[in-house]
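Chapter summary example.
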Amino acid sequence: MNILVLGIGNLLLSDEAIGVRIVEALEQRFNLSPQVDVMDGGTSGMELMGDMACREHLIVADAILTGSPPGTVTVLRDGEVPALYTRKISPHQLGLADVLMALHMTGEFPQRLTLVGVEPESLAVGIGLTGTISRSLDAALDQVVAALRTSGVTVTEKEVDHV
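The structure predicted for these 163 residues follows.
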């Protein structure tokens, strides 16, 4: 298996950072099978194409605007995902749409695509998630873990050292 969990977002725009924070939490809290790559994609665009190409499963964590209440976690799969990115909410999303389109054109599109998105409360300049979005992080992380498990990945919680 060849799986990538990609967190994207801008750490300087408050809740826009949720995708990056999800992949950080994934690495901190869970042990993953070696066939899983976890990557902070930041605000990158086309430069991610090589990392995303020919994956059996690409799981993207990101802030998304769906019109739902802030903190709502939305999971989209396969063909549902590119349509969402036609509406730009931040600089990296145009890049992601371009990468997905390019991967289609080159025949390197992932076999499976899952987007775990969180509706932001604030996209204002500022470091740190709002309280609403911080409280949604665990629910979004659970969806990423569920997506990994549907691909047959062994995901176990790390032991917590009690000092």
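To summarize the output: The longest strand covers residues 36-42.
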